[in-house]
Every structure is written in C-alpha cells, then in structure tokens.
Amino acid sequence: MSLAAGYMKKGLGIHMMQNKETTMKGVFFLTGKDFANAGAASCELKTILEKMQIEQSAIRRAAIAAFEAEMNIIIYTPAGMMKYSITPDYVKVVFQDMGHGIEDIELAMTEGYSTAPDYIREMGFGSGMGLPNIKKNTDEMKISSAPGAGTTLEFIIKFKQERDNENIRDC
Amino acid sequence: MKISEIVEGLSLEVKSANVNLEKEVTGGYVSDLLSDVIANCKEGNIWITLQTHQNIIAVATLRELSGIILVNGKAPDADTIKKANEESIPLMASSLPAFEIVGRLYNLGIRCR
What we know:
Chain A is an alpha+beta fold. Chain A contains 5 helices and 7 strands.
C-alpha cells in the first residue's frame, strides 16, 4: 500500500500520510508487560523513517530514544501509547501512559537511578540509563507527570539534511 | 571479517537460521545492560551477552547489529530464536564465558569500533 493512501493500519500502528508526502503521523498502543511485542513500535517507527529517507544519524537517535521510552511503558505501566509525527524538519514522538506517575522527575533523570524490580534488572533493563539516554539523543525532551496521573514524555529530533521527497518509497 | 568466519574461528553454535552469516562485522560490544548496548554499540557490531530473552533481538534490529553471541552455555529462549529468524539476526552460542569469547574475537582482529 502506498504511503500516500491516507489512513492505513500496518504492523502494530495506525499511520496517516498528509501534505503531499512530507508529513506523516501515527499511533501505537502499548500494553504493559507485553515483552513479546516490546520494541516493535520503535522498530516500526525506524522503518518508516528509513522509507522517508531521513538521515541516518537522526534515525539512530530516534531509534534509541523511542526504544527507551517504549520499554518504560512496557515495564512500569499497565498501558500507554506512542504517537509520532514526521515533518520535513523533525520527528516528534509523544508517549502517554496510564502508570502511577513519577514522583520526582529530577531524581528519575539521574543516571543510575531506577525503581525497577529484580526480575526486570535480571533481564538487563532497569539500569537507570533510559531517561538519560533519551535526553542525550534528542534535541528537545519534556516530561510531565504526577503521582496517580500517569506520565507524558515527548521528544523532538531535528533533521539536518533536506529530504528529497521524490524518492519516498512505498511503505 | 564475516560472521561465518567468527562462527568457525570460535566454534560457535548457530541457533538461528543460517541467514546473514556473510554479513561483515564492523567491531564488537559486550554488555548485559540493554540501555548500555543500545546507546553505545555501533552499527554492524557483534554483541556478546548472557541475556537470552527475546528483547535482545529488538535491540540488535534497532541498532543494526551483525549478530549476537550468547555466552556461558546459555540457550536462547524459543521466542528469541523465532524473533531472530523473523528479523534475520544471526544468533550464536558458546559454552565459553564472555571474557574468553571477547579475547578470542580480539585475537581475530575484532575491536570496539
């Protein structure tokens, strides 16, 4: 199916192409503890960025940041979603969850700080590097959270190179 | 150096389907923390770890790693092998510990790069 066909459901996400193939939006629904699909949304976003011929360094940074944020929803919350929008200048990704929220965001941003239980740490997660990794790999990052109200995390990665929209391939 | 040459040189057992074994290995990275790997490995690296669960394949896919070596005689979960085949990521195993595997890779000319 062509990217230009408007609304489409592919893989885990629902995607929509707008404005003569320069803007793309989509949403993924994430389920807590669903380790079988963990990382799938980030992989799909990476594939979309590749097909839109975004520069390699921006794709790498988006993949790292999206994976960390996606894993946080899988590990710590019952459910959430990941929404992305790709414009000619940047990709913006917003993660919203139904978790119990972050009490102290500054503390959560500290490298090495983690509230992960032992079984999560044994899987190699919960090293307290997730949020710092997102910060390091993005141009803008915002977190809003309150106990009981869930967490919203959004980041923006700007593109340095102009895209050649003639070459966008079918998704 | 290709994955297939490493498989032979280190007597590794290939756990995934024989796909992408001719892939070029750019360097190596060893870690069991997934956030460390995703942030610090390089494209085309071979990854040495004792993590056997399916999420290691997502990490390898997202960072375009050339393959994964499981150490210490660890067997991959069935889901991990399935995902490795879906994503065409070579998944290998050895009874040797990480130290020994990394040393032998270094002797073969693989570096952290």
